[in-house]
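thought: fold this chain, then report.
action: predict
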Amino acid sequence: MNMKSISKLRGLIIVAAGFIFTSSCNQIEIFEKNTVIPAYAWQSNFKVTGDFLIKDTVSAYQMYVVLRHTDAYKYNNIWLNVGLQPPGDSLHYQKVNLILGNDASGWAGSGMNDIWEVRNLLNEVPGRFKQPGKYKYDIAQIMRDNPLLHVMSVGLRVEKVKD
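observation:
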């Protein structure tokens, strides 16, 4: 074999391996949107809002609140009011006590320098959406401090559970 044939064969092997690799992977369907809190001072009247589209009502989903804060945040938790509105329905709220850490072991989640991110599961058991369409959400802080300092961003993550 000459160099040209070896080069073509190597290219063909790389393309075939890439095709096999990408076709054998199960893609996880995920929606995630995080909203920056202005000046890292979360006013009680500032709601983090958004929407996501559900097409598959047969599969189960996990929902998470994603919160990023600085090391200067002064509490071990944060109380949130999380609302979800199905298509054609009203907003349904759930109060969530998001644990951010404790005095013994420090901050929960993952951190780098003085920034920490926590992903908290909202539904212990994966659930199914009853109808397809656009779902709206809003998240508000319901702590006594107003503004609540050192909260950098808040968001929602919706992840389809693999079979």
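thought: worth noting. Residues 30-160 form a domain with the Jelly Rolls fold (CATH 2.60.120).
final: tokens above.
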